[in-house]
Amino acid sequence: MAVSRATNPQLYTPIYDKFLVEGYKAVPQVFPQIFTVLSDDSKEYKTDMLGGLGTWVSVDELGETPSEDLNQLWPKTFTHIKFGKSVIVSYEGVDDDEYAILSKANVVKAEGRGAARKADQDAADIINNSFTSTQTPDSQWLCDTDHPYSPTDATTLSNKITTALTPAALDEMEIKIANNGKDSTGEVVDIEPTTLLVPAALYGTAMEICDKRAWNLRGTADRVLNRFAGVYNVLMWRRLTTSTTAWWLVVPKQDYGLKFVWRERPHYDAWVNHTIDAYDFKGRMRYSLGADDWRCIWGSTGTV
Fold it and tell me: What are phi and psi of 248, to 5 degrees?
């Protein structure tokens, strides 16, 4: 027997897409707070960066304004991957489901929750692996000590330290940013991290340092002014699980930096399999993610 809108109208209603979206939105996600979230209709999303130009120079009256070549830096390709989950429910399972646990609405909402958790965990793993396996276009780890200026200039910059989270460590990181926040020509660029990103194990420490009510500096005698009070937004991500000591300062939602690219947002499909007397509920999505510029994040392993 063929499936058609006439014989199986319950499978062709947008209400189940609505249920899937409701399930997706029911899961709190952290990544949209620091990743730039984009949509793309091509098979892969590509970014290209150009090297910075030097500072302007004085020009004499009637003098020729000097030109400067634009150097192309490393390209980045975001390749979309398909994700999905299918649930097969027998006719008998639906018929005898006294408490409606297997109703289409419940199944589809559960699939939506699973999609949300997958997307958030994949984004978290970009950070989890920032010291060990997440690469940027320059072929270095996302947080590393030797990011080259450009393909033609091997001078290196660092966005990594190894100090445990303390006020002194934040001082150290801010100095690191001041000394290493440069473009491909060595010119200082405007980098202002606003988010202190931590795993659950460091949330208390981060709040004691950065809470706007923490007037006294943590770990010191009274009346030592806490200059970090209210400076950084403390963001705890429970999916940061590879280290209990690592922490990061993040410049969220940069034009170049952490990116999450939707090719197809989570959506629902279903059909009836009359051969085995079952309903098949399927969710599907496609996306890619990564980082195309390391300057968006400055990390510490928290341990020497």
Answer: -145, 145
**Alpha carbon distance 91, 81 (integer Å):** 32
Structure tokens at 138: 């320059």
298: its two tokens: 């400055």
Q: Does an H or E element contain 88, and which? A: strand 81-90
Quickly count helices (H) and strands (E) in the chain.
5, 13
Q: What is the CATH number of domain 9-47+75-300?
A: 3.90.1690
pLDDT band at 1 (very low <50, low <70, confident <90, very high): very low
Q: Are the C-beta atoms of residues 191 and 251 closer than 8 Å to each other?
A: yes
Kindly report the number of other CB atoms within 10 A of residue 70's CB atom: 10
CA nearest 118: which of 19, 244, 27, 235?
Answer: 27
Give the pLDDT confidence of 168-202 residue by residue, as tens digits: 999 999 999 999 999 888 888 888 999 999 999 99
Residue type at position 110: A
Distance from C-alpha of 275 to C-alpha of 100, rounded to nearest angstrom? 24
Q: What are the φ/ψ torsions at residue 196 (nearest 5 degrees)?
A: -100, 110
Specify the higher pLDDT residue, 230 or 158: 158
* Domain boundaries along the sequence of the chain: 9-47+75-300
Distance, CA of 301 to CA of 222 (rounded, Å): 29
**Could you give the angle at which helices 15-25 and 104-128 cross, rounded to 10 degrees?**
40
